[in-house]
């Protein structure tokens, strides 16, 4: 759920985030700079203040039993380093009586014990904020014993000015840094976003029927997106292609057999009744052949659909062979051909789709039954890291000129003859391709063998799966 | 001309309770002379100053000519009395002046430090060097040297002391000839005198020797520039130490010689303060700006209140010029203990104050 106040583009969102982070940082830095400025100014001017107080303290002498201050000019020189600040000072005796100085410079409430323990405090001076310090100097003379307290104060103008100055300088530096950071962030973020923008633009400019892959350069995150989008487009492309093929195949391949069936039927009606059983028999064969053709076309469409959509799972090829053998379709199809089952004792597990594989092997077997010589064997073998399922018959295989065009989608000649080895092979080839396998056809001493070979999955001796 | 029209001087014999020495009223030329009687049209600006009326008159006349709506009532005071009066006004005891100008710079700085002044800023005050202003509440408007003068008819050329060392030697060499014939300000009677003596005590170790020398020749501590200058001119005194050069130059006497001591010469800048309670602070600010403007400075220069230290007749080296800067360090001169101490030392030389 997008919040209404968020800007639309990703760049604006990231920049908003960066800006608010920087703003928070700026506030923290400002507070810190202010505190730092205050503290630095306080310390700097407190030192002047205590320096002046100690200067005055050291100038106090006992003259005839009375403390007398000889205020040094240097003390006031120190204080006037804070150029525009007024001064107050007072030298007081043990009872707090003013000896010299300004009566309004009152001493700290609790007097410190020694000269090097100054007591700072804030106050006012004729209505202006001021800072004071009190130091004491103890005397133990023959004619005088006790402490003399010296209080020195100064208005806070120079302090505030220095604090303000330090703060504004720090803020200025921070501000410039912040602007540099914002600019930098803007350029960095924009360059990082450029592949996304490029992709968006490419997609926007793309022809809706163009399903060719997009270039997958750019950062990994974007490449992942592009790659999966490309996969999606490829699948769509294949499925659209398969659909087109199915439609055009159907149109091409059904026209001739249907026309032939119609011709046979018309002949059967018009011919003399003695010929009719033969005509009907031919009609039946044509119809059966058309049924086979339809079966194969549908199974091919099914296979192509499944190989694109069903995720591969471990399948033992022996299960496939056993399942087909046990369906016993071959006994119906060609009752006079003997079918043998040859399963090895090694597991032949591959990654594939059981239904697609079954269709492919069914077609292989049907081809052998239709064109080959008895006996026909259906077998599974494990050869090294490959698992093979094969069908072998005792014949010599198809003629050489047919082999050259075998596996092509259009096997019009076959179709027109009511035979459809072409389609069967095309199914095999599609399945082999889908699961990384190969189609092999070879004449062996024992006969003609058609093999589907796949990379094996798992160890030959360990049963995989249920 | 203008001065003749505008200046009216009256002696203040009728006002014994007040400490002012003389009063004058300045109005613009052409303004009804009844103004002098106190029914002044426009606004009145009360200026209290230690400066002799005659010396400041050209500048005051120039001001009222430029600002005819303002009438200046100029009161001449002694520096200590002026300080006491300003403090009294600051503490709210009766009305005070609108402008206070004093050569007792330390006293004026003290007024500012007691928050008795109000701030003012203008391009003209900003242009002043830092040593001649503080807090934008006190400004040094003049530049006058502290000089030694002598009666050129009575003092032989070889006796003329070009420096303090020469003066010391002279007092040692012929104490009888100069006995009772050397004068200087009484530091208790004159704020300016105290400031000069105090600055001397800060500036060099010669001060101790000087006091000793003054004691030997029985020097006279007395009050007031005019009186001292008059005394030297008449031959009552042969020499006077630390006299404000401006007074000497503005009342030229044929037989008075002026020395800018070559060891060092103090330069004083009279301080102007606008009291916090000034009734006519606006007029006071106008007055200050006028004195700092080229026109006002010209008037002050003509009155010898602004002296360029690099003039030919002084030929003072740069290092010998000591400007008394207007800043808190002069407050040391206001410290009670230091004052007692300093005056005690002074009295040890000059004896008790004359009755």
From TrEMBL, chain A:
<keyword id="KW-0472">Membrane</keyword>
<keyword id="KW-0597">Phosphoprotein</keyword>
<feature type="domain" description="Histidine kinase">
    <location>
        <begin position="249"/>
        <end position="458"/>
    </location>
</feature>
<dbReference type="InterPro" id="IPR013727">
    <property type="entry name" value="2CSK_N"/>
</dbReference>
<dbReference type="InterPro" id="IPR036890">
    <property type="entry name" value="HATPase_C_sf"/>
</dbReference>
<feature type="domain" description="HAMP">
    <location>
        <begin position="190"/>
        <end position="241"/>
    </location>
</feature>
<dbReference type="InterPro" id="IPR050428">
    <property type="entry name" value="TCS_sensor_his_kinase"/>
</dbReference>
<dbReference type="InterPro" id="IPR005467">
    <property type="entry name" value="His_kinase_dom"/>
</dbReference>
<dbReference type="InterPro" id="IPR003661">
    <property type="entry name" value="HisK_dim/P_dom"/>
</dbReference>
<dbReference type="InterPro" id="IPR003594">
    <property type="entry name" value="HATPase_dom"/>
</dbReference>
<keyword id="KW-0902">Two-component regulatory system</keyword>
<dbReference type="InterPro" id="IPR036097">
    <property type="entry name" value="HisK_dim/P_sf"/>
</dbReference>
<dbReference type="Pfam" id="PF00512">
    <property type="entry name" value="HisKA"/>
</dbReference>
<keyword id="KW-1133">Transmembrane helix</keyword>
<feature type="transmembrane region" description="Helical">
    <location>
        <begin position="12"/>
        <end position="36"/>
    </location>
</feature>
<keyword id="KW-0418">Kinase</keyword>
<dbReference type="GO" id="GO:0005886">
    <property type="term" value="C:plasma membrane"/>
</dbReference>
<feature type="transmembrane region" description="Helical">
    <location>
        <begin position="170"/>
        <end position="189"/>
    </location>
</feature>
<keyword id="KW-0812">Transmembrane</keyword>
<dbReference type="GO" id="GO:0000155">
    <property type="term" value="F:phosphorelay sensor kinase activity"/>
</dbReference>
<dbReference type="InterPro" id="IPR003660">
    <property type="entry name" value="HAMP_dom"/>
</dbReference>
<dbReference type="Pfam" id="PF08521">
    <property type="entry name" value="2CSK_N"/>
</dbReference>
TrEMBL record, chain B:
<dbReference type="Pfam" id="PF01547">
    <property type="entry name" value="SBP_bac_1"/>
</dbReference>
<dbReference type="GO" id="GO:0030288">
    <property type="term" value="C:outer membrane-bounded periplasmic space"/>
</dbReference>
<keyword id="KW-0732">Signal</keyword>
<protein>
    <submittedName>
        <fullName>ABC-type thiamine transport system, periplasmic component</fullName>
    </submittedName>
</protein>
<dbReference type="InterPro" id="IPR006059">
    <property type="entry name" value="SBP"/>
</dbReference>
<feature type="signal peptide">
    <location>
        <begin position="1"/>
        <end position="19"/>
    </location>
</feature>
């Amino acid at each position: 759920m997008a919040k209404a106040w968020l800007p639309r583009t990703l760049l604006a969102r990231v920049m908003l985030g960066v800006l608010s982070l920087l703003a928070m940082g700026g506030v923290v830095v400002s507070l810190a700079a202010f505190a730092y400025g205050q503290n630095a100014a306080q310390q700097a001017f407190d030192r002047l203040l205590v320096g002046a107080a100690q200067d005055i303290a050291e100038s106090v002498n006992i003259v005839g039993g009375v403390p007398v201050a000889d205020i040094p000019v240097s003390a006031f020189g120190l204080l006037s380093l804070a150029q525009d600040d007024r001064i107050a000072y007072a030298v007081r005796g043990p009872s707090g009586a003013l000896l010299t100085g300004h009566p309004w410079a009152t001493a700290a409430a609790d007097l410190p014990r020694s000269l090097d323990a100054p007591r700072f405090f804030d106050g006012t001076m004729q209505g202006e904020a001021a800072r004071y310090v009190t130091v004491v100097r103890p005397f133990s003379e023959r004619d005088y014993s006790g402490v003399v307290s010296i209080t020195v104060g100064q208005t806070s103008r120079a302090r505030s000015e220095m604090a303000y100055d330090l703060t504004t300088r720090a803020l200025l530096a921070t501000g410039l840094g912040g602007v540099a950071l914002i600019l930098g962030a803007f350029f960095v973020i924009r360059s990082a976003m450029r592949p996304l923008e490029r992709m968006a633009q490419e997609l926007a400019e793309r022809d809706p029927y163009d399903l060719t892959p997009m270039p997958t350069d750019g950062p990994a995150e974007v490449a992942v997106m592009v790659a999966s989008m490309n996969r999606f487009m490829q699948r769509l492309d294949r499925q659209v292609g398969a659909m087109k093929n199915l439609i055009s195949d159907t149109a091409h391949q059904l026209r001739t057999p249907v026309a032939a069936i119609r011709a046979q039927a018309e002949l059967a009606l018009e011919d003399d009744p003695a010929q009719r059983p033969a005509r009907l028999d031919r009609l039946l064969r044509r119809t059966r052949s058309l049924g086979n053709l339809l079966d194969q076309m549908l199974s091919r469409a099914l296979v192509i659909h499944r190989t694109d959509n069903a995720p591969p799972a471990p399948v033992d090829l022996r299960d496939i062979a056993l399942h087909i053998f046990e369906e016993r379709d071959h006994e119906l199809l060609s009752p006079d051909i003997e079918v043998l089952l040859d399963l090895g004792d090694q597991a032949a597990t591959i990654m594939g789709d059981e239904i697609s594989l079954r269709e492919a092997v069914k077609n292989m077997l049907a081809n052998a039954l239709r064109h080959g010589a008895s006996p026909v064997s259906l077998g599974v073998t494990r050869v090294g890291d490959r698992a093979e399922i094969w069908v072998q018959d005792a014949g010599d295989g198809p003629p050489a000129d047919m082999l050259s065009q075998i596996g092509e989608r259009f096997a019009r000649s076959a179709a027109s003859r009511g035979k459809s080895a072409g389609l069967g092979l095309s199914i095999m080839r599609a399945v082999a391709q889908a699961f990384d396998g190969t189609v092999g056809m070879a004449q062996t001493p024992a006969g003609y063998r058609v093999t589907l070979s796949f990379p094996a999955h798992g160890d030959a001796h360990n049963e995989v799966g249920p | 001309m203008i001065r003749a029209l505008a200046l009216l001087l009256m002696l203040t014999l009728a006002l014994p309770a007040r400490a002012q020495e003389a009063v004058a009223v300045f109005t613009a030329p052409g303004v009804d002379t009844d103004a002098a009687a106190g029914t002044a049209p426009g606004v009145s600006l009360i200026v209290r100053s230690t400066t002799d009326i005659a010396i400041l008159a050209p500048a005051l006349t120039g001001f009222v000519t430029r600002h005819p709506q303002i009438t200046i009532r100029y009161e001449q005071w002694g520096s200590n009395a002026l300080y006491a009066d300003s403090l009294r006004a600051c503490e709210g005891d009766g009305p005070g002046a609108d402008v206070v100008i004093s050569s007792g710079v330390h006293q004026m700085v003290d007024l500012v430090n007691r928050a008795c002044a109000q701030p003012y800023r203008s391009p003209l005050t900003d242009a002043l060097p830092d040593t001649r202003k503080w807090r934008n509440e006190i400004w040094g408007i003049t530049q006058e040297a502290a000089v030694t003068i002598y009666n050129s008819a009575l003092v032989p050329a070889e006796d003329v002391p070009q420096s303090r060392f020469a003066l010391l030697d002279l007092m040692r060499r012929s104490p009888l000839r100069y006995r009772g014939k050397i004068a200087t300000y009484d530091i208790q009677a004159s704020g300016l005198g105290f400031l000069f003596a105090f600055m001397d005590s800060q500036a060099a170790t010669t001060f101790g020797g000087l006091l000793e020398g003054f004691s030997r020749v029985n020097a006279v501590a007395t009050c007031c520039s005019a009186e001292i200058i008059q005394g030297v001119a008449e031959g009552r005194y042969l020499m006077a130490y630390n006299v404000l050069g401006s007074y000497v130059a503005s009342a030229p006497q044929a037989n008075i010689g002026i020395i800018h001591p070559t060891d060092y010469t103090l330069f004083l800048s009279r301080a102007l303060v606008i009291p916090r309670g000034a009734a006519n602070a606006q007029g006071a600010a106008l007055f200050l700006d006028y004195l700092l403007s080229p026109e006002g400075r010209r008037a002050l220069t003509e009155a010898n209140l602004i002296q360029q230290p690099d003039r030919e007749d002084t030929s003072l080296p740069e290092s010998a010029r000591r400007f008394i800067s207007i800043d808190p360090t002069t407050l040391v001169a206001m410290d009670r203990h230091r004052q007692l101490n300093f005056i005690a030392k002074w009295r040890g030389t000059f004896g008790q104050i004359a009755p």
